[in-house]
Amino acid sequence: MLRxxxxxxxxxxxxxxxxxxxxxxxxxxSAAYCAMVCWFSYLALFYEVSIPNKAAxxxxxxxxxxxxxxxxxxxxxxxxxxxSSIVMLPAALPFILICFGKWEVILPIAVTAxxxxxxxGAGETTKTIFGVxxxxxxxxxxxxxxxxxxxxxxxxxxxxxxxxxxxxxxxRYEVIQTEDSSGGNLAIHVEPNERDIDLPLISFxxxxxxxxxxxxxxxxxxxxxxxxxxxxxxxxTQQLLAISDDxxxxxxxxxxxxxxxxxxxxxYLRDLSDAQLEQLGVPEDNDVLTYGDEVCFRSxxxxxxxxxxxxxxQFSLF
Length: 318
Fold this sequence. Notes:
Elements: H1 2-46, E1 47-50, H2 54-74, H3 79-98, H4 103-119, H5 124-152, E2 157-165, E3 171-179, E4 185-192, E5 197-199, E6 202-206, E7 211-216, E8 226-232, H6 233-243, E9 248-249, H7 253-259, E10 267-268, H8 274-279, E11 285-291, E12 294-298, H9 299-304
Antiparallel strand pairs: 1-6, 2-3, 3-4, 4-7, 5-6, 8-11, 9-10, 11-12
Helix pairs in contact: 1-2, 1-3, 2-4, 3-4, 3-5
C-alpha cells in the first residue's frame, strides 16, 4: 500500500511538472502575439497597410488570433502572459487609430487584447488600475487624434490620374491632380518600389520617400503623356555635360571618401570617370521619366544625390 501511495504521489508530481512546463511554453505564444501587435503599431507609423483579399486575411488572422487566445488563457497565470496582457492594449492603440477602418485586422487584435486583459491571472486591483488608465488613454487619445486630423485635413480634392513602375521596377510613380481654390496643380511623385514589406495576405507599403519631380500650376486642359525610358550611364553623362560643363554634384562625406577626396572638396561631374560613377552606385542602365518633352527624373541623379536615403524620409501622420 505504501508503495502504491508513493508511486501515485510521484506520478502526480511528474504530471504537474509537465503541466507547468507546458504552460510556460505556451506563455511564449502570448509574448510572440504581443510582439506582433507592437510591430504592427510601429509599421503603421512608417507604412501604409494594404490588404488585397480582405475576406481571406480576416479568416486566417482571426483563426491565428483565436489559437493565440486559447494558448494565453491556458497559461494566464504565467508571468509572460500576465505582462503581455497588460502591454497589449496600449501597444495596439497607434495601430487602431492610424489604420482606423481596416476592421479585418483591427477587430481580431482588439478582441484578443480585451479578453486576455480581463481573464489573465493578474490581480483584480492591477486590472482595475490599468483598466481605468487604458480607458482614459483610448478616449483622450482618440479624441485628440481625430480632432487634429480634422484640423489639418486639406479641403483640396486630389485624384490619381496615372500610376505605375519604372522599367527596372526599382521606382514607382503617381500623377496626382489637385483641385483647389488657387487653380489646382498637377504633380508627378516618384518613390522607391523595393522598400515595402510583403507578408502573406498583407503588405506594408513604405511611405515618406516620395519626391515631387514635376509640378505644374495652375492646371492645364491637356495632360501630357508620362513615358519611361532606359538610358545608359555614359549617355546620361554626355547629356548632362552638354547642358553644363560645371555641373556640381551634391555628394555626402561617405561618397567623397569612396572617391578619395576631402569632405570639403567640390566634386564636378566632368572630373568623374565612368568607373568612379559605378563605384558610387550608378547602374549601367538607368530609368528616365519624361513628361511631354521634359525630363523630370533620372535614376542616375537619384543615386548620386541619394534622393531616397532613409535619413531623408519624411514622417507624417496627417
